[in-house]
Every structure is written in structure tokens, then in C-alpha cells.
């Protein structure tokens, strides 16, 4: 079993990375393989709605999005950690997720998703909501914790002082591990839920 952890911060040794590493420790204790994938310092452009991915099976821009998509298809879970910029995930994270989820056409049903956000002060719950939208449109169960998944810190290393926030992330990693293992057992016994053909309606 494997969980991918996306680091959306462009800063080295960021508070966001500290949160991901806190979760990584728990996943390792639970016997789940992990990989931290850094995108915050990458030049990732936004989607241009060309729809070439429907023909190619991948995004027309061959960058970290396509590289990560192959890893995502093989993984059991995805954690997205992002700093908060103007009460939203930073632009690189949003561009990455929009292109990743739109251009990768493999079935994401029952892959477990979790997001967490890091802010100096405000905008955490609004940003947290944005990240979760990608999971809930894709048939991915969303792992939860004992509080909303956010940590606070501005200066490098400051998030370590947010003891409650770090505990929230540890609980999140344990809950996510349990979900991944339970879903694996469920797939063996029951298989995946039945699929219906997607109905598309426009109310315009």
C-alpha cells in the first residue's frame, strides 16, 4: 500500500513540509509506503481547456502533472499539503490539481484523499474546502481527523509550536491508514461499487 504526499510550498524546509513529514512518520509506523512529491517550486501552468487529454490520455503539457499521474494511478491514497495564499491554496497547487484530475482518466474510486493547509493566521477553512472538492468529485473517500486539517506557522519551523495542529495531522494519518486497509479488505470481499453511465445535464 502506498500514499503520495504532495508538497505545495515553494519554500525549502517549509511549515507545510513539516506537516507532511509528521504524517509520513505515522504512515511508516502503519506499514504504508510513502513518497513526498514537491511541486511548490515547479513551473506548472494552468489548464487551457484544449481537451487534448481526451485524445492523448494525458495532459498536452508534458510536465510534473503527467509524471505524477502515473504514480497516482498506482497509489492507494493522496495527501495534498498547501500553504494559504489570499485564503486559497497557492496557484501552483490549484493548477496542478486541476490539470491532474481533469487529464488523468483512470478510475479514482476508493482511493483515499486528504488535504491539509498551513497559514500564518487565516484562510485555512476556505482553502481546505477547495482541496477537498477534487476528491469528492472523483469517488474518493475523504479521510478526516479530530478537527479541520490545518496547521499554523509563518516563520520557518513555527508550525512545530502548533501542538494541536500536529496532533490533528497524526490522527489524520492514522485514520487514513485505517481507511486504506479497510478498503483493501472490502475490495477483496465485495469488489468496487457498481458504476452507472455518467449523465450530463446543463441547466442554462
CATH topology tier name: Rossmann fold
Identify the CATH homologous superfamily.
Flavodoxin domain
**What is the 3D form?**
globular
Q: What portion of residues belong to β-strands?
A: 15-25%
What is the gist of this entry?
This protein has helices spanning 15-29, 53-56, 64-74, 91-103, 124-136, 163-190; strands spanning 2-7, 33-38, 77-85, 88-89, 112-119, 150-152.
Which tags fit this structure?
single chain, 204 residues, alpha/beta, Rossmann fold, 6-stranded mixed sheet, 6 strands, globular
Explain how this protein is built:
The protein is α/β, with parallel strands linked by helices and 204 residues long. It has helices at 15-29, 53-56, 64-74, 91-103, 124-136, 163-190, and strands at residues 2-7, 33-38, 77-85, 88-89, 112-119, 150-152.
Describe the protein's topology.
Layout: E1 2-7, H1 15-29, E2 33-38, H2 53-56, H3 64-74, E3 77-85, E4 88-89, H4 91-103, E5 112-119, H5 124-136, E6 150-152, H6 163-190
Parallel strand pairs: 1-2, 1-3, 3-5, 5-6
Antiparallel strand pairs: 3-4
Helix pairs in contact: 1-6, 3-4
Amino acid at each position: 500500500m502506498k500514499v503520495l504526499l504532495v508538497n505545495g510550498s515553494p519554500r525549502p524546509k517549509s511549515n507545510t513540509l513539516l506537516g507532511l513529514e509528521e504524517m509520513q512518520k505515522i504512515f511508516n509506523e502503519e506499514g504504508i509506503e510513502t513518497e513526498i512529491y514537491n511541486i511548490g517550486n515547479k513551473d506548472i501552468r494552468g489548464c487551457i481547456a484544449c481537451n487534448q487529454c481526451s485524445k492523448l490520455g494525458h495532459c498536452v503539457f508534458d510536465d510534473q502533472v503527467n509524471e505524477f499521474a502515473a504514480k497516482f494511478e498506482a497509489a492507494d491514497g493522496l495527501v495534498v499539503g498547501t500553504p494559504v495564499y489570499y485564503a486559497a491554496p497557492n496557484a501552483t497547487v490549484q493548477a496542478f490539481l486541476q490539470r491532474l484530475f481533469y487529464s488523468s482518466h483512470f478510475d479514482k474510486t476508493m482511493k483515499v484523499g486528504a488535504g491539509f493547509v498551513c497559514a500564518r493566521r487565516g484562510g485555512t477553512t476556505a482553502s481546505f474546502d477547495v482541496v477537498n472538492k477534487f476528491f469528492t468529485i472523483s469517488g474518493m473517500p475523504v479521510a478526516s481527523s479530530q478537527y479541520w486539517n490545518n496547521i499554523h506557522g509563518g516563520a520557518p519551523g513555527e508550525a512545530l509550536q502548533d501542538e494541536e495542529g500536529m496532533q490533528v495531522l497524526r490522527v489524520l494519518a492514522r485514520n487514513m491508514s485505517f481507511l486504506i486497509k479497510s478498503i483493501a479488505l472490502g475490495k477483496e470481499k465485495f469488489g468496487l461499487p457498481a458504476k452507472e453511465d455518467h449523465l450530463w445535464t446543463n441547466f442554462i
